[in-house]
TrEMBL record, chain A:
<feature type="domain" description="ABC transporter">
    <location>
        <begin position="7"/>
        <end position="239"/>
    </location>
</feature>
<dbReference type="GO" id="GO:0005524">
    <property type="term" value="F:ATP binding"/>
</dbReference>
<dbReference type="GO" id="GO:0015807">
    <property type="term" value="P:L-amino acid transport"/>
</dbReference>
<dbReference type="InterPro" id="IPR017871">
    <property type="entry name" value="ABC_transporter-like_CS"/>
</dbReference>
<protein>
    <submittedName>
        <fullName>Leucine/isoleucine/valine transporter subunit ATP-binding component of ABC superfamily</fullName>
    </submittedName>
</protein>
UniProtKB/TrEMBL annotation, chain B:
<dbReference type="InterPro" id="IPR001851">
    <property type="entry name" value="ABC_transp_permease"/>
</dbReference>
<dbReference type="GO" id="GO:0015658">
    <property type="term" value="F:branched-chain amino acid transmembrane transporter activity"/>
</dbReference>
<protein>
    <submittedName>
        <fullName>Inner-membrane translocator</fullName>
    </submittedName>
</protein>
<dbReference type="GO" id="GO:0005886">
    <property type="term" value="C:plasma membrane"/>
</dbReference>
<feature type="transmembrane region" description="Helical">
    <location>
        <begin position="92"/>
        <end position="116"/>
    </location>
</feature>
From TrEMBL, chain D:
<keyword id="KW-1003">Cell membrane</keyword>
<dbReference type="GO" id="GO:0042941">
    <property type="term" value="P:D-alanine transmembrane transport"/>
</dbReference>
<protein>
    <submittedName>
        <fullName>Leucine/isoleucine/valine transporter subunit membrane component of ABC superfamily</fullName>
    </submittedName>
</protein>
<keyword id="KW-0813">Transport</keyword>
<dbReference type="GO" id="GO:0015190">
    <property type="term" value="F:L-leucine transmembrane transporter activity"/>
</dbReference>
UniProtKB/TrEMBL annotation, chain E:
<dbReference type="GO" id="GO:1903806">
    <property type="term" value="P:L-isoleucine import across plasma membrane"/>
</dbReference>
<dbReference type="InterPro" id="IPR003593">
    <property type="entry name" value="AAA+_ATPase"/>
</dbReference>
<keyword id="KW-0547">Nucleotide-binding</keyword>
<dbReference type="InterPro" id="IPR003439">
    <property type="entry name" value="ABC_transporter-like_ATP-bd"/>
</dbReference>
<dbReference type="InterPro" id="IPR051120">
    <property type="entry name" value="ABC_AA/LPS_Transport"/>
</dbReference>
Length: 242, 319, 344, 303, 257
């Protein structure tokens, strides 16, 4: 077993009721990498992330995290171990203040000083959150909510961060900013699995990429290789040949 | 892209009921028609109660199942109908049939008075408002002289059709059967119409409904009033059948029982609601043998049904 | 052959306890008759239908009994639930002896087949007014629970007392099932009433008594016949001392009932409630009527009931031409040392 | 109304109100977390009173029928009935988590009927005396007599409620409760054990109701299988008046409802038989003008 | 200007508590135009849409549609007057069929009520047929007619976006407001969307105002762009001019790298 692999899925199958959404997806993520997971609408990207983080149980196959089998570990045990998922659609707690949202990000933490330290770190990354920390999260604009969602995940001090379409609905400048933050986190030692619709953006940063189609991995490779292959881009990534 | 032909066929109106279903429904109807000829008075009595609940549940289903408004005081409209008939026939000597339009108008009015200011409330708040309304109606009935106070009205006139007087359980059984069929027909017609769809739109997403041009308060109010009218007509016939009515028939428990029928069978869908209504009427009778344990056994049965069939026994495909 | 007697009573709901007493006591009487060889050589069986004191359930319960072909029916506790059934029994011509329910409306709706074995509300009102006068009460507060029975009694008593020159200081209504009566108690106290007349049931009566005394009300407390239950004295405790009750004929007041009381306790593991004795009498009465009718023919039984001259545990049962009791069976009693004793 | 009457009714209203508040609080908490109108809450209150009575009659033998006995009964009942709440949640509500809201409502109704039906079957519908010797000693304010028992009762319920409010607003677990109420899935991703948080909420809500039941039983001196029905309705009403889901709202709503009833009983010109019409009428009018309740959050839906 | 402004916004103000979400916003949309609204996250674009459609009540200012004031009217009245919208987070009736969703747009263009439905009046039957036909026509227009009888919630994301469009179009609006219609679409789907938006205008004459963060798409379709920042309008003009505006670059576009 490759000790460098921090998170690995082995032929996972996932279903919603009677519909099978993943038909045996395998992937491996190495320490310190940014890995992109690409695919068209409904390909199963979000489902893959949900299965990895335990939100939905794999009906077969297994997930390993830091060398341990976590297939049957309930979702709420994972953030504490360092696997943190920023879900699709942000899912912030609208009726609570921004500060409370961030506090909840470090729910499992008992050390208040440490919580304070992490909070400062998040506020430094996203000054707008510091400015409005007593306001209700529901009133943030779409982009602001996305920052809050990422900030909240950082409060858990993740080792591996699963990001589901973080650029969705963001202004161009903010996309850049978010991607910069993703890179910065990565430099700080966080391994990242990034789901993106926008393959151009994602592959620019990714060390490695997987392409999903109809619940199966159809392609994988180094980020730059995928990005530069026009055939791949137009066949699987909905890209328009330049 | 679809071709012209399939577009046309898709645009054609679907029939009111599917053919295969129609066969079953006709068979059920035949049984229903024949029932009093085989059954004794008790069974007919219970079946009549079941039909009463069918009508009431179908009415409440419009409010709860179609428009998504939680109504915990539905028995109030039932009471409005029953008391209108009771008062008009026994105090003012009205012909029974003339009391029905009056009761419908009264129910509409009551629906507007309570619904217009409150229907914009969130569902849980609406629940308590309707509950309060139900209690208010009951307490008023209990305390006024014209309603006979707590002991209610006795000696309510029995209706006559073409010189034939409805007297026995069997007669009322058929009267309620006609009313239930009428209610089914009305619900089917409205469900597939513009207003019926509007109720569903409002139920599933109020804001989106408003955003595409539906007046949500007016739509809700219409559902509420229509439910009220159906309950009031059921009330008229109920009063005539019982000949004695009292506030105890229109309690919060009665409202809950009707709601139970709606949800138990499968909310929002007519066959489910009919089934639920019949069950609500039959279950306590079937369990009569349980004596003091009857409420407990009924409750356990109810819980079991909900746990195994969370969407009701005969749920809507829409889920 | 077999003779089947229907028992209709609240077996569930708030008044389930009373209903169970009624069923038990009637069954005891029937069992005793069977032990003596039944009636006219036939065995007697019973079947119970629960009306839950709810009019709608009462109607189905009633038609169930009729459909089962019962010879006669006994029971009925809540007037509201008995009222709509009178038509069913009347149409079927079944003899029906009402044990507990005693609203005056029952008399009007009776088709001739029903008999009220309990004294009606106006008899009780008269007894109550006599009691008020005897104790020198001039201003009375009347409190009911808003149901048919208690509001009927409250109205009748208030009228009778006014006619007798008394004053009604307050007329209040409480909600059944509520525990707190303080608001009403405060109102009654400030109305300056000499006495309170509670017309509803014992559960509320005990709480009201307690709270009246706790609030320092010094006047008299008089209770209607729905309050005769051992539970009243238990719950009211010392606050119940000196309270008057217009009692139906209960086992404790009846000299000849000691044996019945003991047997009842032995058979059912509980004390015989307020209507146990009367229910037992009605059970005996119906057996007696069938015996006198010499057949299970319902018309004959109705005639036999009309001609009843029956002496039971609870006293004499003779009917007027309206099928109500000729003599009131209410007895004013007073609570002394945790017991009801006759009010001399 | 004379001043004495006004003061006396104020006292009356506060006492009933504090019961309502206590029960409403549990109602509101449970509603807050799983958006369920827990119809069984009134029956939990009733169960609490019965458990309290049983404990009281056992320990009374050793510690007498005074305060000590009541406190023992209170604590044991709160613990036992709190657990009962957890069991009900586990077996009746948890399987229904993803079911339509109305179905859960009906399940709650079923749970309520099960508790009520069991109590009926076990007690035969009898009323039981809960005889304490707490006495009538107390203070006299103007012409109004206030017993120490009443003071302790109001103080105890305020204390319980304040503790609850502190727990919900201060502790991480309290925040987790609110988070779960907003979005269960997202809460899991925060590391919150949703099942446990919900169970805890039921425990606390049920324990509060049980506490209310024991106090009411001891104060009024009687316990009955039907006592929870009206109380459940009142608590629901109080919770809505206060703004359902809000802890301080439930407190205020309970007290307000108590006062409305007390004064509603002594309205001039109309009798106490119209009290509930007055109370519900006031409630409806109030909701028309303040649709979110006293302390409920007014939410402009974002579209 | 020679052409009449279809939508005219004057000095519109909106605030929540102390937060000034819109400050004296004025702009207009010409009949038959395709205009865009851009700006950083939180600039107030969606809030503006909510004011235009009656979901928010503005603090001040006026909105005119075809010369008629619509400020403060409830949403359903505004839709009936010819202004339709889609939502930033898709708000379909997920539990209903695709066709029923599309038919919902016709509600404000039809009139039969409960009584005529119960009586099955011939005119009511005809109206029902008209509503269905219109629903189908618009499904066909956006290209999802083959899914007519599926549940809306089961459609793919892109198709859900199309259905929102069909539903809004079915109310036969004068102007349609689209809130980030391209969010979550890939390049190819975005290209389809551009065609669709053009067809809406060209084939049905409906005016389009859209909010979008995808600058490629915005530049491609719009004739005029309005730019918001912190609740204020900072630019308003032709795409090229806006793209070159230093204020817009500073606040929104950022420098290309
Ligand atoms: N809650 C759900 N219930 C039923 N089916 C679902 C659910 N969520 C997703 N699916 C189905 O599972 C499949 C995969 O969906 P998933 O959300 O993982 O796709 P995705 O790649 O994330 O797409 P997108 O880019 O639109 O987010 C799709 O066919 C979708 O319809
Ligand atoms: N109902 C509300 N209550 C309080 N603040 C609100 C409300 N609605 C919007 N806001 C605030 O108004 C500002 C503008 O929000 P809006 O949603 O209009 O932004 P937007 O331009 O659409 O942003 P995005 O591109 O991210 O969707 C934000 O700061 C938001 O927090
Ligand atoms: Mg996804
Ligand atoms: Mg927006």
């Amino acid at each position: 077993m490759d000790t460098d692999i921090v998170l690995a899925a082995d032929r996972i199958v996932a279903r919603y009721g009677s519909i099978e959404a993943l038909h045996g997806v395998s992937l491996a993520i190495r320490r310190g990498q940014i890995v992109a997971l690409l695919g068209a609408n409904g390909a199963g990207k979000s489902t893959t992330l949900r299965t990895l983080s335990g939100l939905i149980a794999a009906s077969s196959g297994s997930v390993r995290f830091l060398g341990e089998d976590i297939t049957r570990v309930p979702a709420h045990r994972l953030p504490h171990r360092g696997l943190v998922h920023v879900p699709e659609g942000r899912r912030i707690f609208g009726d609570m203040t921004i500060r409370e949202n961030l506090d909840l990000g470090s729910f499992t933490l008992t050390d208040d000083a440490e919580r304070r330290r992490r909070l400062d770190h998040v506020f430094e990354l996203f000054p707008i959150l510091a400015k409005r920390h007593n306001g209700d999260a529901r009133n943030l604009s779409g982009g602001e909510q996305q920052m809050l969602a990422i900030g909240r995940a950082l409060m858990a001090a993740p080792k591996v961060l699963l990001l589901d379409e973080p650029s969705m609905g963001l202004a161009p400048q903010l996309i850049k900013e978010v991607m910069n933050i993703v890179q910065r986190l990565n430099r700080e030692g966080v391994t990242i699995l990034l789901v993106e619709q926008n393959s151009k953006v994602a592959l620019k940063f990714a060390d490695y990429g997987y392409v999903l189609k109809g619940g199966r991995i159809v392609l994988e490779g180094r980020g730059t290789d995928l990005a530069n292959d026009d055939a791949v881009v137009s066949a699987y990534l909905g890209g328009v040949a330049a | 892209m679809s071709d012209g032909a399939s577009t046309l066929s898709a645009a054609a109106q679907p029939p009111l009921v599917r053919r295969s279903f129609l066969l079953w429904a006709l068979a059920a109807l035949a049984c229903a028609l024949a029932l009093p000829h085989f059954a004794n008075a008790y069974v007919t009595e219970v079946a009549t109660t079941a039909l009463l609940y069918v009508v009431l549940c179908l009415g409440l289903n419009i409010v709860v199942g179609y428009a998504g408004l939680l109504d915990l005081g539905y028995a109030a409209f039932f009471a409005v109908g029953a008391y209108t008939t009771g008062i008009l026939t026994s105090e003012f000597g009205f012909n029974f049939w003339l009391t029905i339009p009056v009761a419908m108008a009264a129910a509409c009015l009551a629906g507007i008075i309570i619904g217009a200011p409150t229907l914009r409330l969130r569902s849980d708040y609406l629940a308590i408002v309707t509950l309060g309304f139900g209690e208010i109606v009951r307490i008023i009935a209990r305390n006024l002289d014209i309603t006979g106070g707590a002991s209610g009205l006795v000696g309510i006139e029995r209706p006559e059709i073409l010189g034939f007087k409805l007297m026995q359980v069997q007669h009322f059984y058929y009267a309620f059967l006609v009313l239930a069929l009428l209610a089914v027909f009305v619900c089917l017609s409205v469900e597939r119409s513009r207003m019926g769809r509007a109720w569903f739109y409002v139920r599933y997403d109020e804001d989106a409904a408003a955003g595409i041009g539906i007046n949500r308060v007016s739509a809700k109010l219409q559902a509420y009033m229509m439910g009220a009218v159906i309950a009031s007509v059921a009330g008229c016939l109920y009063a005539a059948k019982m000949t004695a009515i009292s506030p105890e028939s229109f309690t919060f428990n009665q409202s809950l029982l009707i709601l139970l029928g709606v949800v138990l069978g499968g909310m929002g869908r007519i066959p489910g609601v009919v089934l639920g209504a019949i069950l609500v009427a039959l279950l306590p009778e079937v369990l009569r043998g349980a004596g003091t344990y009857r409420p407990l056994v009924t409750a356990v049965a109810l819980l079991a049904i909900m746990l195994f069939r969370p969407n009701g026994l005969w749920p809507d495909k829409r889920g | 052959a077999e003779i089947k007697i229907g028992i209709v009573a609240p077996m569930t709901g708030q008044l389930a306890s009373e209903g169970q007493d009624m069923e038990n006591a009637v069954k005891m009487a029937i069992d005793a008759a069977n032990a003596k060889g039944g009636v006219n050589g036939d065995k007697i069986t019973t079947t119970t239908a629960d009306d839950a004191c709810d009019p709608q359930q009462a109607v189905t319960a009633g038609s169930k009994l009729v459909s089962e072909g019962v010879t006669a029916i006994v029971g009925g506790y809540c007037s509201g639930a008995v009222l709509p059934t009178l038509k069913i029994y009347g149409d079927a011509g079944v003899p029906f002896v009402i044990i507990g329910a005693n609203s005056t409306k029952l008399v009007a709706a009776n088709q001739g087949n029903a008999f009220l074995a309990n004294s009606t509300g106006d008899m009780q009102a008269t007894t109550a007014v006599d009691l008020f006068k005897k104790n020198g009460y001039k201003k009375i507060a009347v409190i009911d629970e808003g149901d048919a029975y208690s509001s009927d009694l409250a109205k009748l008593t208030a009228e009778a007392f006014k006619n007798a020159g008394g004053e009604i200081a307050a007329k209040e209504t409480t909600t059944a099932g509520e525990q707190d009566y303080s608001a009403v108690v405060t109102k009654v106290k400030s109305s300056g009433a000499d006495a309170v007349f509670w017309t509803a049931y014992h559960a509320g009566g005990a709480l009201l008594t307690k709270q009246l005394r706790q609030a320092g009300f010094q006047g008299g407390i008089v209770l209607g016949d729905g309050n005769n239950s051992p539970e009243y004295l238990e719950i009211a405790g010392s606050a119940g001392e000196g309270v008057f009750l217009l009692s139906p004929p209960t086992v404790d007041l009846l000299s000849g009932a000691a044996d019945f009381k003991a047997k009842y306790k032995e058979a059912y593991g509980r004390d015989a409630g307020a209507y146990a004795a009367l229910s037992h009498d009605v059970g005996d009465l119906i057996v007696d009527a069938i015996a006198r009718a010499k057949s299970a023919d319902q018309k004959a039984i109705i005639e036999a009931l009309k001609a009843s001259d029956f002496k039971g545990l609870a006293g004499e049962i003779k009917f007027t031409d309206k099928n109500t009791l000729q003599t009131s069976n209410f007895r004013p009693v007073i609570a002394k040392g945790g017991k009801w004793v006759a009010d001399e | 109304m004379t001043l004495d009457l006004v003061i006396q009714q104020l006292v009356n209203g506060l006492i009933v109100g504090s019961f309502y508040a206590l029960i409403a609080l549990g109602y509101s908490m449970v509603f807050g977390v799983i958006k369920l109108l827990n119809f069984a809450h009134g029956d939990i209150y009733m169960s609490g009173a019965f458990v309290g009575l049983i404990v009281f009659s056992f320990v009374g033998v050793w510690v007498g029928n005074g305060w000590l006995g009541v406190v023992c009964a209170l604590l044991v009942s709160m613990l036992a009935v709190g657990l009962l709440g957890v069991v009900i949640e586990r077996f009746a509500y948890r399987p229904m988590r993803n079911a339509p809201r109305l179905s859960i409502l009906i399940t709650a109704l079923g749970a309520s009927m099960v508790l009520n039906g069991s109590a009926l079957a076990l007690t035969g519908g009898r009323h039981f005396a809960f005889n304490t010797d707490l006495g009538f000693a107390g203070l006299d304010v103007s012409a109004v007599h206030i017993t120490y028992t009443q003071i302790v009762l109001v103080a105890a319920s305020i204390l319980l409620m304040a503790g609850m409010q502190a727990f919900v607003s201060r502790t991480m677990y309290g925040k987790a409760m609110r988070a779960v109420s907003i979005d269960m899935g997202a809460s899991r991703l925060m590391g919150i054990d949703v099942d446990r948080v919900i169970a805890l909420t039921f425990f606390m809500g049920s324990a509060l109701a049980a506490g209310g039941g024991v106090m009411a039983g001891a104060y009024y001196g009687s316990v009955h299988f039907f006592m929870g029905f009206i109380m459940g309705l009142k608590a629901f009403t109080a919770a809505v008046i206060g703004g359902i889901g809000s802890v301080p709202g439930a407190m205020l709503g309970g007290l307000l409802l108590g006062l409305l009833e007390a004064y509603g009983s002594s309205l001039p010109f109309v009798g106490s038989e119209w009290r509930d019409v007055f109370v519900f009428g006031a409630l409806i009018l109030f909701l028309v003008f303040k649709p979110t309740g006293l302390l409920g959050r007014s939410v402009v839906e974002r579209v | 200007m020679t052409t009449m402004a279809l939508l005219e916004v004057r000095d519109l103000r909106l605030s929540f508590g102390g937060l000034k979400v819109l400050q004296d916003i004025s702009f207009s949309v010409e009949k038959g135009a395709i205009n865009s609204l851009i700006g950083p996250n939180g600039a107030g674009k969606t809030s503006l849409f909510n004011c235009l459609t009656g979901f928010y009540k503005p603090k001040g200012g006026s909105i005119r549609l075809g010369g008629r004031p619509i400020t403060g009217l409830p949403p359903h009245r505004i839709t009936a007057l010819g202004l339709a919208r889609t939502f930033q987070n898709i708000r379909l009736f997920k539990e209903m069929s695709v066709l029923e969703n599309a038919m919902s747009g016709q509600h404000c263009r039809s009139r039969h009520g409960i009584v005529s439905a119960i009586l099955h009046l011939p005119s009511q039957r005809r109206e029902e047929e008209r509503i269905r036909a219109a629903g189908m026509r618009w499904l066909d227009f956006v290209g999802i007619a083959e899914h007519a009888h599926r549940l809306a919630g089961g459609l793919s994301y892109g198709d859900q976006r199309r259905l929102e469009l069909a539903r809004a179009l079915a109310s036969t609006p004068e102007i349609i407001l689209l809130d980030e219609p391209a969010a979550g679409l890939n390049e190819r789907e975005k290209l389809d969307l551009v065609h669709l938006i053009r067809r809406i205008r060209d084939e049905t004459g409906v005016t389009v105002l859209l909010i979008e963060h995808d600058m490629g798409l915005v530049m491609q379709v719009s004739e005029k762009i309005v730019v918001f920042d912190y609740g204020q309008k900072i630019a308003d003009g032709a795409p090229e001019a806006v793209r070159a505006d230093p204020k817009v670059i500073e606040a929104y576009l950022g420098t290309e790298d």
